[in-house]
Amino acid sequence: MGNILSDFLVRRQEGYYCRYGDFFIDPLLPVGSALVSHAHADHATPGHGEIYCTPPTAAFMRHRYRRQPSHSFVECRFHQRFVVGGVHIHFVPAGHILGSAQIVMEHNGIRYLYTGDYKLQGDDTCEPLEPVQADVLITETTFADPKIIHPDPIAEISKINDVPYNILLGAYALGKAQRLTSLMNTYCPDRKVFVHHGILPLHRLYQSLGIDHLRYEPYSRKEMKASERNRVYIVPPMTFNSYYKATDVIRVFASGWQHLQRHNDMAIYISDHVDWKDILHYIAQVNPTQIWTIHGQGRHLAMHFDPSLYVRELT
């Protein structure tokens, strides 16, 4: 068994680079070989020579990046093993959105686990997170702060039941909008869900990929002006921001970020990332020797753990 390589994954201008396999993970600039954890735009970009990803991630990227050659996608199912350069790789579910993957990389007897974005909360619109033990955990730290504890999403979405008005609900188009639709279908059954035209194709893609239980309709101005006050109109962030003068609706944005709750009529804290308690729980499951942090600040984790568990920010 080899030693942990401190330079196994390093941050470059293009993205996170593994020279032992000559590939990048979630690069933002065009590269030869890219491993893409999921299809959100801050992780999945076009222009790469080869894109290794799950089939749902490939479907979302094909939808968004029509000029990306179809043959450049190397679709890998969860647990399907493949080799890039000298590194053995497979994907396991991350629980973030449909098709989101943790990336398991093995080299010289050492296992490196790149989480991508992930969550432990239940979500019937994507594959649940699958714990993996590894020597090195490379984790996102978006909400890795002891002050941040996400509330129960069922309690949050149920707030809508107490509002006697139609609701303009802001949400990210991929992943969050589909999760909210499912939550409202289940816990706000008297609400009719309408979907913005910019989100509608993604709902339909979800259906084509097996998530076929969502109940919704395309946006209808007539329906939103009906006398019954039980409509919810899900819109993407740009539309939500442009509708700041909207009347006869309650403005709500579903997010874990506190700053996105300001100036709205009510707050709904629903996040697709791990909070402080969940990240600690997952670290215990992975049982790593080292933790490398990305996408946020790892200083709270570094202060929390005994020095025997090496924590550093990946640079």
Automatic annotation (TrEMBL):
Pfam families hit by this protein: Lactamase_B_2
InterPro entries: MBL, Metallo-B-lactamas, RibonucZ/Hydroxyglut_hydro
Annotated SUPFAM superfamilies: Metallo-hydrolase/oxidoreductase (SSF56281)
Limits of the Metallo-beta-lactamase domain: 31-153
The protein, known as: MBL fold metallo-hydrolase
Native source organism of the sequence: Parapedobacter deserti
